[in-house]
Amino acid sequence: MSNYKRILLAEDNVHDIQLTLTALEHLANEVQVVRDGAEALDYLYRRGKYMDRTDSQPVVVFLDIKMPKVDGVEVLRQIKADAELKTIPVVMVTSSREQRDLLISYKLGVNAYVVKPIDFDQFLSAIKELGLFWCVLNEPPPGCGPKLEETPI
Amino acid sequence: MLNQNVRILVVEDSRTQAQQLRYILEQQGYEVGVANNGVQALEMIPKLQPALIISDIVMPKMDGYELCRRIKNGDIAQKDIPIILVTTMSDPQDVIRGLECGADNFVLKPYDEQYLLGRVRYVLVNREMRRADESGMGVEIYFNGQRHFITADRLQILNLLMSTYEAAIQRNKELNRSQEVLQFLNAKLDNANKELESFSYSVSHDLRAPLRHIDGYLGLLEKHLADLLDEKGRDYLKVISKAAQNMGRLIDDLLAFSQMGRIEMMQRETDVELLIQETIHVLQPELENRKIHWNIAPLPKVRADYAMLRQVFSNLLGNAAKYTRTKEVAEIEIGVKSTGKEDIFFVRDNGVGFDMQYVDKLFGVFQRLHRAEDFEGTGVGLANVRRIITRHGGRTWAEGKIDQGATIYFTLPKSGEQIHE
Fold this sequence. Notes:
The structure holds 2 protein chains of 2 kinds.
Chain A lengths: L5 E5 L3 H11 L5 E5 L2 H8 L15 E4 L8 H10 L8 E5 L4 H9 L4 E4 L4 H18 L16
Parallel strand pairs in A: 1-2, 1-3, 3-4, 4-5
Helix pairs in contact in A: 1-5, 2-3
Chain B lengths: L6 E5 L3 H13 L3 E5 L2 H11 L3 E5 L7 H9 L10 E5 L5 H9 L3 E4 L4 H19 L7 E5 L2 E5 L3 H72 L5 H30 L6 E5 H12 L8 E5 L4 E5 H18 L6 E9 L3 E8 L31 H11 L4 E5 L5 E8 L8
Parallel strand pairs in B: 1-2, 1-3, 3-4, 4-5, 9-11
Antiparallel strand pairs in B: 6-7, 8-10, 11-12, 12-14, 13-14
Helix pairs in contact in B: 2-3, 3-4, 6-7, 8-9, 9-10
Protein backbone atom coordinates (compact mmCIF):
# COMPACT_ATOMS: atom_id res chain seq x y z
CA MET A 1 0.00 0.00 0.00
CA SER A 2 2.76 2.48 0.75
CA ASN A 3 4.38 1.85 -2.53
CA TYR A 4 3.55 5.28 -3.79
CA LYS A 5 5.10 8.53 -2.88
CA ARG A 6 2.87 10.05 -0.27
CA ILE A 7 1.74 13.69 0.09
CA LEU A 8 0.86 14.99 3.55
CA LEU A 9 -1.92 17.56 3.15
CA ALA A 10 -2.55 19.72 6.21
CA GLU A 11 -5.82 21.56 5.64
CA ASP A 12 -8.68 22.36 7.98
CA ASN A 13 -11.36 23.25 5.45
CA VAL A 14 -13.37 20.34 4.04
CA HIS A 15 -14.09 22.18 0.79
CA ASP A 16 -10.45 22.88 0.20
CA ILE A 17 -9.67 19.24 0.96
CA GLN A 18 -12.22 18.04 -1.58
CA LEU A 19 -11.09 20.49 -4.27
CA THR A 20 -7.42 19.67 -3.68
CA LEU A 21 -8.07 15.92 -3.78
CA THR A 22 -10.03 16.42 -7.01
CA ALA A 23 -7.05 18.19 -8.53
CA LEU A 24 -4.69 15.44 -7.40
CA GLU A 25 -6.85 12.47 -8.35
CA HIS A 26 -5.10 11.82 -11.63
CA LEU A 27 -1.86 11.28 -9.73
CA ALA A 28 -1.64 7.75 -8.44
CA ASN A 29 -0.25 9.10 -5.19
CA GLU A 30 -1.50 8.52 -1.74
CA VAL A 31 -2.62 11.70 -0.02
CA GLN A 32 -2.69 11.66 3.76
CA VAL A 33 -4.99 14.38 5.05
CA VAL A 34 -4.54 15.93 8.50
CA ARG A 35 -6.95 18.57 9.77
CA ASP A 36 -4.73 20.96 11.69
CA GLY A 37 -1.13 21.77 12.54
CA ALA A 38 -1.11 19.72 15.72
CA GLU A 39 -2.24 16.62 13.83
CA ALA A 40 0.37 17.27 11.14
CA LEU A 41 3.11 17.29 13.79
CA ASP A 42 1.69 14.17 15.45
CA TYR A 43 1.80 12.44 12.09
CA LEU A 44 5.38 13.42 11.34
CA TYR A 45 6.60 12.63 14.85
CA ARG A 46 4.61 9.37 14.92
CA ARG A 47 2.87 10.21 18.16
CA GLY A 48 -0.71 10.42 19.47
CA LYS A 49 -3.02 8.59 17.09
CA TYR A 50 -0.10 8.06 14.69
CA MET A 51 2.00 6.31 17.34
CA ASP A 52 1.92 3.03 15.47
CA ARG A 53 2.75 4.46 12.07
CA THR A 54 5.65 2.55 10.56
CA ASP A 55 5.67 3.72 6.96
CA SER A 56 8.14 6.27 5.64
CA GLN A 57 7.82 10.03 5.79
CA PRO A 58 5.87 11.82 3.01
CA VAL A 59 7.80 13.12 -0.01
CA VAL A 60 6.24 16.54 0.47
CA VAL A 61 4.06 18.39 2.98
CA PHE A 62 1.39 20.77 1.66
CA LEU A 63 0.67 23.22 4.47
CA ASP A 64 -2.24 25.59 4.77
CA ILE A 65 -1.24 28.63 6.84
CA LYS A 66 -4.38 29.46 8.76
CA MET A 67 -5.34 26.37 10.72
CA PRO A 68 -6.78 25.85 14.18
CA LYS A 69 -4.57 24.92 17.16
CA VAL A 70 -1.16 25.08 15.49
CA ASP A 71 -0.89 27.15 12.31
CA GLY A 72 1.10 26.32 9.21
CA VAL A 73 3.97 28.68 9.97
CA GLU A 74 4.49 27.00 13.37
CA VAL A 75 4.43 23.54 11.79
CA LEU A 76 7.02 24.73 9.28
CA ARG A 77 9.14 26.15 12.09
CA GLN A 78 9.13 22.86 13.97
CA ILE A 79 9.86 20.76 10.89
CA LYS A 80 12.79 22.92 9.84
CA ALA A 81 14.16 23.06 13.40
CA ASP A 82 14.17 19.27 13.73
CA ALA A 83 17.30 17.45 12.61
CA GLU A 84 15.33 14.46 11.34
CA LEU A 85 12.40 16.23 9.73
CA LYS A 86 14.08 19.23 8.18
CA THR A 87 14.93 17.44 4.93
CA ILE A 88 11.25 16.88 4.12
CA PRO A 89 10.16 19.38 1.46
CA VAL A 90 7.42 21.74 2.67
CA VAL A 91 5.15 23.77 0.39
CA MET A 92 2.90 26.50 1.74
CA VAL A 93 -0.42 26.25 -0.10
CA THR A 94 -2.48 29.16 1.09
CA SER A 95 -5.15 31.74 0.35
CA SER A 96 -3.02 34.76 1.03
CA ARG A 97 -0.06 36.47 -0.51
CA GLU A 98 0.52 38.53 2.62
CA GLN A 99 4.07 39.87 2.73
CA ARG A 100 4.70 38.79 6.27
CA ASP A 101 3.62 35.18 5.59
CA LEU A 102 5.91 35.03 2.58
CA LEU A 103 8.79 36.53 4.46
CA ILE A 104 8.55 34.36 7.55
CA SER A 105 8.01 31.21 5.48
CA TYR A 106 11.12 31.75 3.40
CA LYS A 107 13.11 32.74 6.48
CA LEU A 108 12.13 29.45 8.07
CA GLY A 109 13.28 27.58 4.98
CA VAL A 110 10.08 26.76 3.09
CA ASN A 111 10.70 24.91 -0.20
CA ALA A 112 7.92 26.61 -2.16
CA TYR A 113 5.02 29.01 -1.59
CA VAL A 114 1.87 28.78 -3.68
CA VAL A 115 -1.21 31.03 -3.52
CA LYS A 116 -4.35 29.13 -4.37
CA PRO A 117 -6.04 30.85 -7.34
CA ILE A 118 -9.74 31.68 -7.08
CA ASP A 119 -10.39 30.59 -10.67
CA PHE A 120 -11.11 26.87 -10.50
CA ASP A 121 -9.34 25.96 -13.74
CA GLN A 122 -6.25 27.78 -12.58
CA PHE A 123 -6.58 26.16 -9.18
CA LEU A 124 -6.78 22.70 -10.75
CA SER A 125 -3.74 23.20 -12.91
CA ALA A 126 -1.73 24.78 -10.09
CA ILE A 127 -2.35 21.87 -7.72
CA LYS A 128 -1.80 19.32 -10.50
CA GLU A 129 1.54 20.84 -11.38
CA LEU A 130 2.54 20.93 -7.73
CA GLY A 131 1.72 17.25 -7.33
CA LEU A 132 3.48 16.38 -10.55
CA PHE A 133 6.58 18.28 -9.61
CA TRP A 134 7.01 17.03 -6.06
CA CYS A 135 5.86 13.43 -6.61
CA VAL A 136 7.15 12.67 -10.07
CA LEU A 137 9.84 15.08 -11.14
CA ASN A 138 11.51 15.84 -7.86
CA GLU A 139 13.83 13.33 -6.26
CA PRO A 140 12.88 13.18 -2.57
CA PRO A 141 15.50 13.16 0.16
CA PRO A 142 16.52 9.76 1.56
CA GLY A 143 14.05 8.66 4.19
CA CYS A 144 11.03 9.98 2.35
CA GLY A 145 9.14 7.98 -0.21
CA PRO A 146 8.15 4.40 -0.79
CA LYS A 147 8.87 1.36 1.26
CA LEU A 148 11.90 2.62 3.06
CA GLU A 149 11.00 0.59 6.13
CA GLU A 150 11.83 -2.55 4.21
CA THR A 151 15.37 -1.47 3.55
CA PRO A 152 17.65 -3.06 6.11
CA ILE A 153 19.27 -0.57 8.41
CA MET B 1 -22.80 92.16 44.10
CA LEU B 2 -19.33 91.76 45.51
CA ASN B 3 -17.32 93.68 42.94
CA GLN B 4 -19.86 96.38 42.25
CA ASN B 5 -18.42 99.82 41.68
CA VAL B 6 -15.04 98.36 40.84
CA ARG B 7 -14.36 99.61 37.30
CA ILE B 8 -11.94 97.93 34.97
CA LEU B 9 -10.75 99.33 31.64
CA VAL B 10 -10.05 96.73 28.96
CA VAL B 11 -7.76 97.93 26.16
CA GLU B 12 -7.90 95.51 23.26
CA ASP B 13 -8.08 96.00 19.49
CA SER B 14 -9.69 92.65 18.71
CA ARG B 15 -13.41 93.04 19.13
CA THR B 16 -14.04 89.36 19.92
CA GLN B 17 -11.31 89.20 22.51
CA ALA B 18 -12.54 92.43 24.10
CA GLN B 19 -16.05 90.97 24.28
CA GLN B 20 -14.75 87.77 25.80
CA LEU B 21 -12.85 89.67 28.49
CA ARG B 22 -15.81 91.94 29.18
CA TYR B 23 -18.06 88.90 29.61
CA ILE B 24 -15.70 87.14 32.01
CA LEU B 25 -15.30 90.28 34.13
CA GLU B 26 -18.94 91.31 34.13
CA GLN B 27 -19.91 87.83 35.30
CA GLN B 28 -17.97 88.70 38.47
CA GLY B 29 -19.80 91.98 38.92
CA TYR B 30 -17.04 94.31 37.72
CA GLU B 31 -17.97 97.34 35.66
CA VAL B 32 -16.12 97.18 32.38
CA GLY B 33 -15.13 99.82 29.84
CA VAL B 34 -13.49 98.95 26.54
CA ALA B 35 -10.95 100.97 24.53
CA ASN B 36 -9.66 99.85 21.14
CA ASN B 37 -6.13 101.21 21.52
CA GLY B 38 -3.81 103.20 23.79
CA VAL B 39 -4.87 106.61 22.56
CA GLN B 40 -8.51 105.94 23.20
CA ALA B 41 -7.67 104.48 26.61
CA LEU B 42 -5.87 107.67 27.70
CA GLU B 43 -8.95 109.66 26.72
CA MET B 44 -11.28 107.41 28.67
CA ILE B 45 -9.31 107.13 31.92
CA PRO B 46 -10.14 110.54 33.52
CA LYS B 47 -13.85 110.01 33.14
CA LEU B 48 -14.02 106.29 33.89
CA GLN B 49 -11.62 106.38 36.86
CA PRO B 50 -10.82 102.66 36.55
CA ALA B 51 -9.42 100.73 39.50
CA LEU B 52 -7.46 98.55 37.09
CA ILE B 53 -6.40 98.46 33.42
CA ILE B 54 -6.03 95.24 31.45
CA SER B 55 -4.24 95.99 28.20
CA ASP B 56 -3.21 94.03 25.15
CA ILE B 57 0.35 94.69 23.97
CA VAL B 58 0.14 94.76 20.19
CA MET B 59 -2.36 97.40 19.06
CA PRO B 60 -2.52 100.05 16.36
CA LYS B 61 -1.79 103.72 17.12
CA MET B 62 -0.41 103.17 20.63
CA ASP B 63 0.69 99.80 21.97
CA GLY B 64 0.34 98.48 25.50
CA TYR B 65 3.89 99.35 26.60
CA GLU B 66 3.55 102.92 25.47
CA LEU B 67 0.17 103.25 27.18
CA CYS B 68 1.68 101.89 30.37
CA ARG B 69 4.65 104.23 30.16
CA ARG B 70 2.42 107.26 29.64
CA ILE B 71 0.27 106.41 32.63
CA LYS B 72 3.17 105.59 34.96
CA ASN B 73 5.10 108.71 33.90
CA GLY B 74 2.22 110.76 35.11
CA ASP B 75 0.93 111.99 31.77
CA ILE B 76 -2.44 111.83 33.43
CA ALA B 77 -3.49 112.27 37.03
CA GLN B 78 -4.12 108.60 37.76
CA LYS B 79 -0.56 107.34 37.70
CA ASP B 80 -1.16 104.73 40.35
CA ILE B 81 -3.69 102.67 38.44
CA PRO B 82 -2.32 99.15 38.31
CA ILE B 83 -1.86 97.78 34.79
CA ILE B 84 -2.02 94.16 33.73
CA LEU B 85 -0.47 93.45 30.33
CA VAL B 86 -1.74 90.56 28.25
CA THR B 87 1.07 88.51 26.71
CA THR B 88 1.44 85.42 24.60
CA MET B 89 4.79 84.72 26.30
CA SER B 90 6.49 84.31 22.96
CA ASP B 91 9.27 86.85 23.47
CA PRO B 92 11.57 87.03 26.51
CA GLN B 93 11.91 90.77 25.83
CA ASP B 94 8.31 91.10 27.03
CA VAL B 95 9.48 90.92 30.64
CA ILE B 96 12.12 93.60 30.19
CA ARG B 97 9.77 95.88 28.32
CA GLY B 98 7.12 95.26 30.95
CA LEU B 99 9.59 96.25 33.70
CA GLU B 100 10.72 99.31 31.79
CA CYS B 101 7.26 100.68 31.26
CA GLY B 102 6.28 99.91 34.85
CA ALA B 103 3.58 97.30 34.26
CA ASP B 104 2.27 95.60 37.37
CA ASN B 105 1.35 92.19 36.12
CA PHE B 106 1.23 89.82 33.19
CA VAL B 107 -1.57 87.50 32.16
CA LEU B 108 -1.42 84.83 29.51
CA LYS B 109 -3.32 84.84 26.28
CA PRO B 110 -5.46 82.87 25.42
CA TYR B 111 -7.16 83.49 28.75
CA ASP B 112 -7.72 80.85 31.33
CA GLU B 113 -10.72 82.32 33.09
CA GLN B 114 -9.90 81.30 36.67
CA TYR B 115 -6.28 82.32 36.28
CA LEU B 116 -7.21 85.71 34.89
CA LEU B 117 -9.68 86.44 37.66
CA GLY B 118 -7.11 85.37 40.26
CA ARG B 119 -4.66 87.92 38.83
CA VAL B 120 -7.28 90.65 38.85
CA ARG B 121 -8.20 90.01 42.48
CA TYR B 122 -4.54 89.92 43.50
CA VAL B 123 -3.69 93.19 41.81
CA LEU B 124 -6.73 94.94 43.27
CA VAL B 125 -5.91 93.81 46.81
CA ASN B 126 -2.25 94.81 46.51
CA ARG B 127 -2.85 98.21 45.07
CA GLU B 128 -3.26 99.67 48.59
CA MET B 129 -0.07 98.06 49.83
CA ARG B 130 1.86 99.47 46.90
CA ARG B 131 1.22 103.01 47.84
CA ALA B 132 3.25 102.51 51.03
CA ASP B 133 6.40 101.63 49.12
CA GLU B 134 7.39 104.59 47.03
CA SER B 135 10.98 104.58 48.09
CA GLY B 136 12.28 102.72 45.05
CA MET B 137 15.43 103.94 43.38
CA GLY B 138 16.26 103.08 39.83
CA VAL B 139 17.78 99.68 39.04
CA GLU B 140 20.07 98.99 36.13
CA ILE B 141 19.98 95.54 34.52
CA TYR B 142 21.56 93.92 31.52
CA PHE B 143 19.54 91.63 29.38
CA ASN B 144 20.54 90.19 26.01
CA GLY B 145 23.59 92.45 25.94
CA GLN B 146 21.53 95.58 26.46
CA ARG B 147 21.30 97.88 29.39
CA HIS B 148 17.90 98.65 30.79
CA PHE B 149 16.96 101.17 33.45
CA ILE B 150 14.05 100.19 35.66
CA THR B 151 12.36 102.83 37.77
CA ALA B 152 9.43 100.79 39.04
CA ASP B 153 9.30 100.22 42.78
CA ARG B 154 10.37 96.96 44.42
CA LEU B 155 6.93 95.56 45.05
CA GLN B 156 5.93 96.32 41.49
CA ILE B 157 9.01 94.55 40.13
CA LEU B 158 8.46 91.57 42.37
CA ASN B 159 4.83 91.34 41.37
CA LEU B 160 5.63 91.52 37.72
CA LEU B 161 8.30 88.86 37.94
CA MET B 162 6.12 86.61 40.08
CA SER B 163 3.28 86.93 37.61
CA THR B 164 5.66 86.13 34.78
CA TYR B 165 6.90 83.09 36.59
CA GLU B 166 3.37 82.04 37.34
CA ALA B 167 2.43 82.51 33.72
CA ALA B 168 5.39 80.37 32.69
CA ILE B 169 4.31 77.60 35.05
CA GLN B 170 0.78 77.85 33.73
CA ARG B 171 2.06 77.53 30.16
CA ASN B 172 4.25 74.64 31.19
CA LYS B 173 1.26 72.86 32.70
CA GLU B 174 -0.66 73.35 29.48
CA LEU B 175 2.26 71.97 27.48
CA ASN B 176 2.53 68.94 29.72
CA ARG B 177 -1.17 68.35 29.38
CA SER B 178 -1.10 68.56 25.61
CA GLN B 179 1.91 66.27 25.56
CA GLU B 180 -0.04 63.71 27.56
CA VAL B 181 -2.93 64.04 25.15
CA LEU B 182 -0.53 63.57 22.24
CA GLN B 183 0.98 60.46 23.77
CA PHE B 184 -2.47 59.07 24.35
CA LEU B 185 -3.53 59.78 20.78
CA ASN B 186 -0.31 58.27 19.49
CA ALA B 187 -0.92 55.06 21.39
CA LYS B 188 -4.44 54.98 20.02
CA LEU B 189 -3.16 55.48 16.49
CA ASP B 190 -0.62 52.70 16.97
CA ASN B 191 -3.37 50.44 18.14
CA ALA B 192 -5.63 51.33 15.24
CA ASN B 193 -2.78 50.59 12.83
CA LYS B 194 -2.20 47.19 14.36
CA GLU B 195 -5.89 46.44 14.20
CA LEU B 196 -6.00 47.52 10.57
CA GLU B 197 -3.09 45.24 9.80
CA SER B 198 -4.65 42.20 11.41
CA PHE B 199 -7.92 43.11 9.75
CA SER B 200 -6.40 43.14 6.29
CA TYR B 201 -4.50 39.97 7.14
CA SER B 202 -7.66 38.06 7.91
CA VAL B 203 -9.43 39.62 4.94
CA SER B 204 -6.77 38.27 2.66
CA HIS B 205 -6.97 34.80 4.20
CA ASP B 206 -10.61 34.40 5.03
CA LEU B 207 -12.45 36.26 2.28
CA ARG B 208 -10.68 34.59 -0.60
CA ALA B 209 -11.33 31.04 0.57
CA PRO B 210 -15.15 31.07 0.13
CA LEU B 211 -14.76 32.60 -3.34
CA ARG B 212 -12.43 29.79 -4.27
CA HIS B 213 -14.99 27.32 -3.00
CA ILE B 214 -17.78 28.95 -5.01
CA ASP B 215 -15.77 28.76 -8.20
CA GLY B 216 -14.46 25.30 -7.38
CA TYR B 217 -17.85 23.76 -6.75
CA LEU B 218 -19.26 25.52 -9.81
CA GLY B 219 -16.60 23.68 -11.80
CA LEU B 220 -17.51 20.41 -10.17
CA LEU B 221 -21.24 21.08 -10.65
CA GLU B 222 -20.74 21.82 -14.34
CA LYS B 223 -18.87 18.56 -14.76
CA HIS B 224 -21.44 16.68 -12.71
CA LEU B 225 -24.43 17.95 -14.67
CA ALA B 226 -22.62 17.84 -18.01
CA ASP B 227 -25.30 16.86 -20.55
CA LEU B 228 -28.17 17.93 -18.35
CA LEU B 229 -27.14 21.58 -18.71
CA ASP B 230 -28.47 23.58 -21.62
CA GLU B 231 -26.90 26.74 -23.00
CA LYS B 232 -28.75 28.95 -20.54
CA GLY B 233 -27.71 26.86 -17.56
CA ARG B 234 -24.08 27.02 -18.61
CA ASP B 235 -24.40 30.80 -19.02
CA TYR B 236 -25.71 31.15 -15.50
CA LEU B 237 -22.84 29.15 -14.11
CA LYS B 238 -20.42 31.34 -16.05
CA VAL B 239 -21.92 34.51 -14.59
CA ILE B 240 -21.62 33.17 -11.04
CA SER B 241 -18.04 32.14 -11.70
CA LYS B 242 -17.14 35.52 -13.18
CA ALA B 243 -18.71 37.32 -10.22
CA ALA B 244 -16.67 35.26 -7.77
CA GLN B 245 -13.49 35.99 -9.69
CA ASN B 246 -14.33 39.68 -9.89
CA MET B 247 -14.78 39.83 -6.15
CA GLY B 248 -11.43 38.10 -5.79
CA ARG B 249 -9.84 40.84 -7.87
CA LEU B 250 -11.52 43.53 -5.78
CA ILE B 251 -10.18 41.99 -2.60
CA ASP B 252 -6.68 41.65 -4.03
CA ASP B 253 -6.65 45.25 -5.30
CA LEU B 254 -7.98 46.61 -2.04
CA LEU B 255 -5.38 44.70 -0.06
CA ALA B 256 -2.61 45.87 -2.36
CA PHE B 257 -3.87 49.43 -1.95
CA SER B 258 -3.88 49.19 1.83
CA GLN B 259 -0.44 47.60 1.76
CA MET B 260 0.86 50.44 -0.44
CA GLY B 261 0.26 52.84 2.43
CA ARG B 262 2.19 50.74 4.89
CA ILE B 263 5.19 49.18 3.17
CA GLU B 264 8.51 50.87 3.67
CA MET B 265 9.85 53.02 0.84
CA MET B 266 13.33 52.58 -0.57
CA GLN B 267 14.16 55.72 -2.47
CA ARG B 268 17.02 55.75 -4.92
CA GLU B 269 17.93 57.34 -8.23
CA THR B 270 15.50 56.04 -10.81
CA ASP B 271 15.73 56.29 -14.59
CA VAL B 272 12.21 57.21 -15.66
CA GLU B 273 12.86 56.54 -19.37
CA LEU B 274 13.98 53.02 -18.61
CA LEU B 275 11.02 52.52 -16.35
CA ILE B 276 8.65 53.55 -19.12
CA GLN B 277 10.25 51.23 -21.67
CA GLU B 278 9.89 48.42 -19.18
CA THR B 279 6.26 49.29 -18.50
CA ILE B 280 5.36 49.41 -22.19
CA HIS B 281 7.13 46.11 -22.73
CA VAL B 282 5.01 44.48 -20.04
CA LEU B 283 1.82 45.99 -21.51
CA GLN B 284 2.71 44.86 -25.04
CA PRO B 285 0.85 41.48 -25.05
CA GLU B 286 -2.42 43.31 -24.32
CA LEU B 287 -1.78 45.78 -27.11
CA GLU B 288 -1.64 43.40 -30.04
CA ASN B 289 -3.80 44.60 -32.93
CA ARG B 290 -3.69 48.09 -31.51
CA LYS B 291 -2.27 51.12 -33.30
CA ILE B 292 -0.62 53.21 -30.63
CA HIS B 293 1.61 56.15 -31.31
CA TRP B 294 3.83 56.65 -28.26
CA ASN B 295 5.26 60.13 -28.02
CA ILE B 296 7.83 60.09 -25.25
CA ALA B 297 9.86 63.19 -24.41
CA PRO B 298 13.33 62.93 -22.86
CA LEU B 299 12.76 62.30 -19.18
CA PRO B 300 14.95 63.03 -16.16
CA LYS B 301 16.25 60.73 -13.49
CA VAL B 302 14.35 61.11 -10.23
CA ARG B 303 14.69 60.01 -6.65
CA ALA B 304 11.94 57.48 -5.93
CA ASP B 305 11.05 53.98 -4.84
CA TYR B 306 11.56 52.00 -8.04
CA ALA B 307 8.81 49.41 -7.57
CA MET B 308 6.30 52.04 -6.50
CA LEU B 309 7.06 54.37 -9.39
CA ARG B 310 6.77 51.43 -11.79
CA GLN B 311 3.32 50.82 -10.36
CA VAL B 312 2.47 54.48 -11.05
CA PHE B 313 3.48 54.28 -14.70
CA SER B 314 1.96 50.86 -15.11
CA ASN B 315 -1.37 52.31 -13.96
CA LEU B 316 -1.13 55.51 -16.00
CA LEU B 317 0.05 53.90 -19.25
CA GLY B 318 -2.36 51.00 -18.76
CA ASN B 319 -5.21 53.48 -18.36
CA ALA B 320 -4.10 55.50 -21.38
CA ALA B 321 -4.02 52.34 -23.51
CA LYS B 322 -7.35 51.14 -22.14
CA TYR B 323 -9.29 54.36 -22.64
CA THR B 324 -8.01 54.90 -26.20
CA ARG B 325 -9.25 51.45 -27.22
CA THR B 326 -12.13 52.97 -29.19
CA LYS B 327 -9.82 55.17 -31.28
CA GLU B 328 -8.35 53.93 -34.52
CA VAL B 329 -4.97 55.40 -33.70
CA ALA B 330 -4.17 56.03 -30.08
CA GLU B 331 -1.90 58.96 -29.29
CA ILE B 332 -0.19 58.65 -25.93
CA GLU B 333 2.19 61.37 -24.86
CA ILE B 334 4.51 61.26 -21.88
CA GLY B 335 6.31 64.43 -20.90
CA VAL B 336 7.79 66.45 -18.09
CA LYS B 337 8.14 70.06 -17.09
CA SER B 338 10.81 70.83 -14.54
CA THR B 339 10.85 73.75 -12.16
CA GLY B 340 13.51 74.49 -9.58
CA LYS B 341 11.61 72.59 -6.95
CA GLU B 342 9.96 69.66 -8.72
CA ASP B 343 9.45 67.62 -11.87
CA ILE B 344 5.90 67.75 -13.22
CA PHE B 345 5.20 64.58 -15.22
CA PHE B 346 2.14 64.05 -17.36
CA VAL B 347 0.58 61.23 -19.38
CA ARG B 348 -1.81 62.49 -22.06
CA ASP B 349 -4.07 60.42 -24.32
CA ASN B 350 -6.66 61.05 -27.01
CA GLY B 351 -9.12 58.54 -25.57
CA VAL B 352 -12.67 58.74 -24.29
CA GLY B 353 -11.72 61.33 -21.65
CA PHE B 354 -14.02 62.29 -18.81
CA ASP B 355 -16.31 65.03 -17.56
CA MET B 356 -14.35 67.54 -15.42
CA GLN B 357 -17.40 67.68 -13.17
CA TYR B 358 -16.35 64.31 -11.74
CA VAL B 359 -12.63 64.95 -11.59
CA ASP B 360 -12.64 64.65 -7.79
CA LYS B 361 -13.86 61.08 -8.00
CA LEU B 362 -11.07 60.05 -10.31
CA PHE B 363 -8.51 59.40 -7.57
CA GLY B 364 -10.90 57.79 -5.05
CA VAL B 365 -10.82 54.11 -4.12
CA PHE B 366 -13.35 52.01 -6.06
CA GLN B 367 -14.50 55.15 -7.90
CA ARG B 368 -15.13 54.63 -11.58
CA LEU B 369 -16.35 56.97 -14.29
CA HIS B 370 -17.10 54.17 -16.76
CA ARG B 371 -19.31 51.11 -16.70
CA ALA B 372 -17.52 47.82 -16.11
CA GLU B 373 -18.89 46.40 -19.34
CA ASP B 374 -17.37 49.29 -21.34
CA PHE B 375 -14.00 49.44 -19.61
CA GLU B 376 -12.95 46.76 -17.15
CA GLY B 377 -11.26 47.67 -13.87
CA THR B 378 -11.75 47.84 -10.13
CA GLY B 379 -11.19 51.56 -9.59
CA VAL B 380 -8.08 51.27 -7.48
CA GLY B 381 -5.40 52.24 -10.01
CA LEU B 382 -5.47 56.03 -9.70
CA ALA B 383 -6.06 55.82 -5.95
CA ASN B 384 -2.82 53.87 -5.80
CA VAL B 385 -1.08 56.46 -7.98
CA ARG B 386 -2.17 59.25 -5.67
CA ARG B 387 -1.13 57.35 -2.55
CA ILE B 388 2.32 56.57 -3.97
CA ILE B 389 2.94 60.11 -5.19
CA THR B 390 1.74 61.60 -1.90
CA ARG B 391 4.14 59.36 -0.03
CA HIS B 392 6.91 60.73 -2.25
CA GLY B 393 5.94 64.27 -1.28
CA GLY B 394 4.32 65.04 -4.65
CA ARG B 395 0.86 66.00 -5.96
CA THR B 396 -1.55 64.50 -8.47
CA TRP B 397 -4.30 66.02 -10.59
CA ALA B 398 -6.11 65.44 -13.87
CA GLU B 399 -7.62 67.27 -16.82
CA GLY B 400 -10.00 65.88 -19.37
CA LYS B 401 -12.93 66.38 -21.66
CA ILE B 402 -15.43 63.83 -22.87
CA ASP B 403 -14.21 62.20 -26.07
CA GLN B 404 -11.17 64.46 -26.19
CA GLY B 405 -8.76 62.56 -24.02
CA ALA B 406 -7.37 62.86 -20.53
CA THR B 407 -4.14 64.12 -19.00
CA ILE B 408 -2.93 62.89 -15.64
CA TYR B 409 -0.28 64.97 -13.90
CA PHE B 410 1.94 64.16 -10.98
CA THR B 411 4.91 65.85 -9.38
CA LEU B 412 8.03 64.55 -7.69
CA PRO B 413 10.19 66.82 -5.54
CA LYS B 414 13.68 67.38 -6.93
CA SER B 415 16.51 65.24 -5.57
CA GLY B 416 17.83 66.39 -2.23
CA GLU B 417 14.44 67.76 -1.23
CA GLN B 418 13.18 66.56 2.10
CA ILE B 419 10.78 63.70 1.74
CA HIS B 420 7.69 64.03 3.89
CA GLU B 421 5.86 60.89 4.88
